[in-house]
Amino acid sequence: MPLRDLLLGLFVIAIWALNIIVIKVGVAELPPLMMTTLRFMLVAALLVPFYPVARAQLPFLLLLSVTFGSLHFALLFIGLGQAEAGTGAILVQMGTPFATLLAVIFLKEKLGPKRIAGLLLSFAGVVVLAGGPTLPSPLPLTILLCSAMGWAVSQLLIKRGPPLAPMALAGWMALFAVPQVALGSWLFESGQWQAIQQASWLGWGAVLYTAVMSSIVAYGIWYALLRRHPVNRVVPMTLLVPVLAVGLGALLMGDSLGFHKLMGGGLVIAGIALIVIKFRRRPRAV
């Protein structure tokens, strides 16, 4: 990979890792579902007018808005409000093992020994994390794992769904997710209007960052890299997201770096590496 593209990939990883910290800052000032609603409104306003889709594709986008918008993103924002940033980043990475299992069950994909080992390592890492002090109750663990499952289901839907431009998918999914998440905020949260009025530049900056930098800029660069390079050269870089998020959480948020987080996180990342990285056998010299 040329140095320019490698630096672009690392720039995207840095955006996504910092996004975990930014979400935590945002939900400290705005209710999580309200913040998610504002994020989706901004993404939809910036993308939908420029990326029209066919009417026949709307049912698929509506379904995706439930799994990707309401399940993944909304639960991610709620979970990060109750867990440390680094722990949350590690747990959300479990979307990859979940997607692997779902592909085996529903798409009849085969599991080799390497991927089975990766799954076992990943789930062992979650067990270690769950036994540590960074998750004081089972609730944040469950919420973040459900968020990861929402991501996994969405990846299978995207794989089997109609071909769509990435920005069109992001924009229309956000548009359809707005009323769902807004309804959830209205039913389960309170003080939204007061929070909006009292939010500082940090809260509004968090909404802007998660919408523009994380969703539009980062994904725009990422999909451009995927078009130019083999997936196996690009996707493994995402393993750096939880590593960087753990470091940023300790540096900026004062998160702990205990045994359970380092060991559990290491097991999760090692397991995901076995799942996503393809190792090529070198031909024997004659």
From TrEMBL:
Localization in the cell: Membrane
InterPro entries referenced in this protein's UniProt entry, alphabetically: AA-Vitamin_Transporters, EamA_dom, EmrE-like
Keyword Repressor: no
Signal listed as a keyword: no
Membrane topology field: Multi-pass membrane protein
Keywords from the named record: Membrane, Transmembrane, Transmembrane helix
Residues passing through the membrane, by range: 7-27, 33-53, 60-80, 86-107, 116-135, 141-158, 170-188, 200-222, 234-253, 259-277
SUPFAM superfamilies according to UniProt: Multidrug resistance efflux transporter EmrE
Top-level lineage group: Bacteria
A single cellular component GO annotation: membrane
Domain spans labelled EamA: 6-129, 143-276
Official protein name in the record: Membrane protein
